Amino acid sequence: MEPIVLQNTTEEGALLSATFLPSSGMNLISYKKDQQEVIDQTTRQAFAERFSGLGPVIGPHFFRMQPFLVAKPVRKDLFPHIERVFARGQTDPYSHGIGRYVPWTYEASSQKIEAHLTGNATYKGAPIKDLEGYDFSMNMLVQLEKDGLSIAMSASADKECVTGLHYYYALEEKKGRIKGPIQTVYNNQGAFEKIPSSWLEKEQQMLNFDLSAFADYGFLPPFEDSSSWMALQTGNRSVKVSYQGKTDGVSCQIYSPKGASFVCIEPIGAKNPRRLDSATSSFTAKITIL
């Protein structure tokens, strides 16, 4: 399948364009406002090697399955990346779920994509549910609007599942800050802890995180709310990621290794993606280049 390029024009006359690869897990390989690219293009090699980098999806599971949950036999013949990630000590061949590794079916127009993936579909003759280890369905509605890129995702499965976006936003000179309204607890590898005061603005419910430090943390919308936003400020550029989901069923993960050229801002249809408790997942997000 060829790339899908969506285009629209802002009220101020700037050209927006978003390019997706439905044949490679619905990866968002480019998102621009005029000539300003916000997806980190230096991560293309990671995308080519192991389906990481650029703009992958999350689902139907988060991060890496425990070894005893990985579907057997592992079909190393289907994906060249499996030998490479196993050589690095990983045991899950499909980190963050099979959704980013296989083609999706879709219908598209100049500003919209409706994409679907089911466990009953096959990849090179193998049922996708056999690769993931259980049956599921995932849906993705993408619309490039005048004020940004709108994405709705949903999933249902035979067991606990999740949906999310794992987009790699470029940092200018490897520097930036993340701000957004949050609760004063954060998800640290599956456990919720009190947020360090140095991460917060004075009003205590506004994140102000310096990306010179390592980040792999989850944050929740403010109390009694099912929506929030995270804004990246890097150099003279800002990107705002607004997200909304079910009450007590949505969060946003921030991932950026120390010294990285990117930060991942990940809206996720689960409160705690490392401790899933529902066989359905959904959220909506809008990404605006300011």
How large is the share of residues in beta strands?
Answer: 35-45%
What is the CA-atom radius of gyration, in angstroms?
Answer: 18 Å
| Count of beta strands | 23
Into which percent range does the helicity of residues fall? under 10%
Order of helices and strands: EEEEHEHEEEEHEEEEEEEEEEEEEE
The order of strands across the largest sheet is: 6-7-10-11-23-20-19-14-17
Which regions contain 5 or more consecutive residues with pLDDT less than 50?
Answer: none
Write up this protein.
There is one protein chain. With 290 residues, the protein is mainly β. It contains 3 helices and 23 strands. The protein is globular and about 55 Å long.
Task: Break the fold down into its secondary structure elements and pairings.
Blueprint (H helix, E strand, L loop, with lengths): L3 E6 L5 E7 L5 E7 L2 E2 L6 H7 L6 E2 L22 H7 L17 E4 L3 E7 L3 E2 L2 E2 H5 L3 E10 L2 E10 L6 E2 L1 E4 L6 E5 L3 E4 L2 E4 L11 E5 L4 E5 L7 E8 L2 E9 L5 E6 L5 E7 L11 E10 L1
Antiparallel strand pairs: 1-2, 2-3, 3-4, 5-12, 6-7, 7-10, 8-9, 10-11, 11-23, 13-22, 14-17, 14-19, 15-16, 15-18, 18-21, 19-20, 20-23, 21-22
